[in-house]
Design goal:
This protein is mainly α. The protein has a domain of 146 residues: Biosynthetic peptidoglycan transglycosylase-like (Penicillin binding protein transpeptidase fold), CATH 1.10.3810. The chain is built from 10 helices and no strands. The longest helix is centred in the middle third of the chain and has 17 residues.
Length: 230
Amino acid sequence: MEYLTLPDVKYLQKENPETTSLIQIRDKEYEKEGKKPREYRIWVPYSQVSLYLKKAILVGEDVNFFTHSGIDLQEMKESLKIDWKKKKFSRGASTITQQLAKNLFLSPSKNPLRKLKEILIAFRLEKALSKRRIFELYLNLVEWGDGIYGCEVASRYYFGKSSSDLTPDEAIRLATSLPFPRKYPPTSDARRFERRRKIILNRMLKYGFLTLEEYEAPLNPQVEEPKDSV
């Protein structure tokens, strides 16, 4: 019966959620390890987030976000093909709306019934909220490391500045880490991270989100070690 019950999302039109399912799951993980839960959050309006970051997230996570109705059918078809060949759930095809639905109300498990509920909630979010509001919620709730939630905290934590002041490279680094933020933080120099960062950089140029001058600008490797407070 749990998977037949969908949450009411209309309150999100005007209210910012105080917590999410993912945050509660992470807090329990800390408690099991005998640690005090870490949770840093600073809410910032959509208009105050760097355009570079919004564009980098779009090309990295969901380039068709502003045109689909909650799911990207083409991406889902490609994902199913690959999963069928590998005989396991491996390739992600979740839209920004689906990721928000999962973070707010569900668990990270790959249970097919959980995935179905994620899709149904995504449709409900799309019906009740504007695209701008969905993206604003996502930007403020997505996980960027242990106890790091939202773009404002992530920007201050990793780069010592507000999310409105990010350089193109810093924005791309934040977007690059999103699939595995606890394994590959924005300051990572791992080979897999670098491959994905270059993909997002090239897509930013392809879609006209970066000028050639910005694309060819020196990278910004001089990042400080993250601090435990923001």
